[in-house]
Amino acid sequence: MIVSKNHKKLERLLLFYEVAQHLSFSKAAEHLAISRSYLSQQIRSLEQDLQTQLLIRTTRKVRLTTEGHKVFVQAQAMHHGLLDLERELEHSGDKVAGILRLTAPAAFADSFLADVCYQFSQRFSEVSFEIDVGHHLEDLHERNFDLAIRVTTKPPENMVARKLMPYCHWVVASPEYFSANGQPTQPSDLANLQCLAFPSWRNWQFVKAGKVEEIEAKGQFAVNDNNILIKAALNHQGVTRVPEHLLWKLVREGRLQRVLSDYQVEQRQVWMLYPPKIEHSSRLQHFVAFLQQYLSQVRP
Predict the structure, then answer these.
(1) Residue 167 to residue 252: CA distance in whole angstroms
(2) pLDDT tens digit string along 117-138?
(3) Which among 56, 105, 123, 170 is most buried, taking Cβ atoms within 10 Å?
(4) What is the CATH number of domain 91-164+268-298?
(5) Do 2-77 and 91-164+268-298 come out as alike in CATH topology?
(6) Where are the domains of the chain?
(7) What are 163-195's pLDDT values in tens digits?
(8) Alpha-carbon dihedral angle through residues 17, 23, 25, 26, given to the nearest 10 degrees
């Protein structure tokens, strides 16, 4: 009887963790793929088990009580422990097989990851992939990812962080646009051209010999998507500045032309992040090495 009660209590603690994470019964129920009524019933039973109120419920939102926050911390540790255990067991053994769960920014996934995963699976046919496209610095303890590709200046301390590649932004336009409007030889020349930029990122910084120069990118077209900016540049609408790896092929083919290459423009670092528990995973190690080799071959 005690074992049975503990079993139900553990289940209810993990359900409570999801509600506390989302601060919403509806969102937690959707995430768990269970009914809201069942979830609500289990949380009420947990409060009865613990003989304390864990949540303050209103018609619009849910808040944790002081006791609820204490329970949440313990439930979070349980959740992390289960994820770590699952990862460790999934990645045990020397065989290169099983699922690799990856998360990466959309631009990186589109430019490299789809092809890398395909080529890797041709060599290791028993490995399959699940890819989540996103930009947030996920806590891999919270979500079940094996490897995160992220652009950041501060990798999380609770993850193994390895540099994947540096990159900067290139300033480009179509040869036809430059032929009609002239090529800039210094950043200030961009004031005379149509600049295609993010609406919230019009201040373009250029560095040369340690000196920083900043200009305001002015133009008639702005959008918060790099691929659309590139399409506009290909349509001869103006000059844009986007991450270099999105432009390697287009510049190599001569469809876009790079200018101001003697300046450093918005340098960044791409990192690989993964949980310490699976650092020695055979399939993860093989994939990381394969990804590094692939990128070394496609860089100009």
Answers:
(1) 17
(2) 999 999 988 889 999 887 665 5
(3) 170
(4) 3.40.190.10
(5) no
(6) 2-77, 91-164+268-298, 169-259
(7) 999 999 999 999 999 999 999 999 999 999 999
(8) -120
